Amino acid sequence: MLRIHNSLTRRKEDFAPIEPGKVRMYVCGITVYDHCHVGHARMMLVFDMVARWLRASGFALTYVRNITDIDDKIIRRAIENGETIGALTERFITAMHQDLDALGVLRPDHEPRATQYVPQMLNLIGLLEQNGLAYRATDGDVNFSVRKFAPYGRLSGKSLDELRAGERVAVTDAKQDPLDFVLWKASKDADPQEARWPSTYGSGRPGWHIECSAMATALLGEALDIHGGGADLQFPHHENEIAQSEGAHPGTFVRYWMHNGFVRVDDEKMSKSLGNFFTIREVLAQFDAEVLRLFVLRAHYRSPLNYSDAHLDDARASLLRLYTALTPGVHTPAQVDWSTPEAQRFRDAMNDDFNTPVAVSVLFELAGELNRTRDAAVERQLRALAGVLGLLERDSASVVRSGLRAAPVVAGLSDADIDALVLRRTEAKRAKQFAEADRLRAELQTAGIVLEDSATGTRWRRA
Questions:
Q1: Alpha helix stretches (DSSP H) within 62-151
Q2: Cβ–Cβ contacts within 10 Å for residue 446, how many?
Q3: Neighbour count for residue 170 (Cβ, 10 Å)
Q4: Mind listing the pLDDT tens digit for each residue in 284-300?
Q5: Distance CA 184, CA 349 (A)
Q6: pLDDT (tens digit, 9 = 90+) per residue, 102-130?
Q7: How many CA atoms lie within 13 A of 319 on its CB side?
Q8: 298-321: string of b/e by CB count within 10 Å (b at 16+)?
Q9: In 3-state terms, what secondary structure has residue 136?
Q10: Residue 349 and residue 362 in contact, taking contact as beta carbons nearer than 8 Å
């Protein structure tokens, strides 16, 4: 049985969806005002892995991942660039999809944009006002009254007094309490027209937190099985989502809350101020996308992930070992044989709160066995289990030859050039011209080409 660590209860729990056999999962997506960074990559890859495993386990999954296409950062960036909000967000949505497609992140079933759900947000705010949890402030905003929602603080595990002392609570004179948060922001004189919506509260736009509550309930109903996101969203965003959703619709909003750990860079917190902030595109200019995928999956999703070039180089070498074990050529995806001991260990690991480090170790065990036996059944099983994680789905020969280097190779030799030199070396060896064979190997080595001789012939790859 699948067990999931629930951030709300702080323990692993047996997974029992609201409706047997069906899963409703919502994940907070990207605010599209810039290119996605490594932290976004980890979150997207983690919940792509979760979605893949739920489906591999036989669940009928409905996966919703939103796009925030209106907020303060977006408005500021559009004004700075002298472009419309729509042009800015569309450009970065396209870039986001390109990045995620490269990483093998499957598209969710629904990808709602906040600007498409403003009427639903206003309806939700109206319910909160009717229930005595929302009030109109003197500055024109509509705020949520936190102290009137008794369970507030369950997800963060902090009391209201502790939260009030926190640094992430915005304070304005118009709030009845510093903890209160905005549901509807009144328009400011400087706001562009496309950031204004008419409402009974006056011209304005939705606050960030109300967006997800409205989109989740509109697409999945008032109760969700899984809600996920990065650890930075646990408070205040997800805490506020609970307050809004359960304040409007009494009952449990989410059964299982999941949060992936932070990304650190060379053992320091990733941040723009430290200058260690990397976009996905910057990483993929140096490393193959599947290398980044394996790098993320080798760590447990809840643990901190230390990003460095050295760690990515190690992941590259590890992925090459897996591909090197495979028979060259494109293969039809195989079905997993769940009766084998390796598959059972893989399944047990994934059912233990998505323990991908153990699941990935099973792949290396199979690769080792394949190298020893060259058993076709072992190879099918390796490919099938790896495919569950979105790995080893390419032709092994082309991958090994590339060396999994994303940057252009400065070897000056095309694949055809290398094939010709390898053939000349093979012919020299057959003719017992060993000095010439050694010279050709040295020439290839100088050009950054690694040769691997075996009983079946010579394979090459770029170093």
A1: 72-81, 85-102, 118-130
A2: 9
A3: 11
A4: 999 999 999 999 999 99
A5: 44
A6: 999 999 999 999 999 999 999 999 999 99
A7: 32
A8: bbbbeeebbbeeeebeebbebbbe
A9: strand
A10: yes
- Helix or strand holding residue 449 (H, E): strand 449-454
Residue 359 near residue 300 (C-beta atoms within 8 A): no
Q: Please report the sign of the dihedral spanned by the C-alpha atoms of residue 264, residue 266, residue 267, residue 271.
A: negative
Q: Closest by alpha carbon to 179, among 201, 146, 206, 148?
A: 146
| CA gap 406, 241 in Å, rounded | 40
Question: Token match 């010279």: residue?
Answer: 439
Q: What CA–CA distances, in Å, run from 194 to 71, 84, 85? A: 12, 8, 7
Is residue 449 scored above 90 in pLDDT? Answer: no
Per residue, the 3-state secondary structure of 172-228, as one string, reads: CCCCCCCCCEEEEEECCCCCCHHHCECCCCCCEEECHHHHHHHHHHHHHCCCEEEEE
Q: Assign residue 144 a region (left: φ > 0; alpha: ψ between -120 and 50; beta: otherwise).
A: beta
Q: What is the 3-state secondary structure (H, E, C) of 279-294?
A: EHHHHHCCECHHHHHH
Task: Give the residue from 457, 459, 424, 417 showing the smallest Cα distance to 438.
Answer: 424
Residues with Cβ within 8 Å of 366's Cβ and at least 6 positions away in sequence, in order, are 342, 378, 381, 382, 385
Asked whether the beta carbons of 254 and 296 are under 8 A apart, the reply is no
What the block records as the tokens of 434 is: 């060993």
Beta bridge partner(s), residue 30:
67
**What's the rounded Cα separation, in Å, for the pair 184 and 175?**
13
Give the helix/strand (H/E) hosting 319.
Answer: helix 309-325
| Residue range 152-207, pLDDT digits in tens | 999 999 888 887 755 444 556 789 999 999 999 999 999 999 999 999 999 999 99
Helix (H/G/I), strand (E/B), else coil: 307:
strand
User: Is beta strand 263-265 parallel, antiparallel or unpaired with respect to 305-307?
Assistant: parallel
Q: Which two tokens stand for residue 273?
A: 């101020």
In whole angstroms, give the CA distance from residue 52 to residue 49: 5
What is the C-alpha R_g of the chain? 26
Is the pTM higher than 0.90? The answer reads no
Question: How many C-beta atoms surround the C-beta of residue 218 within 10 A?
Answer: 18
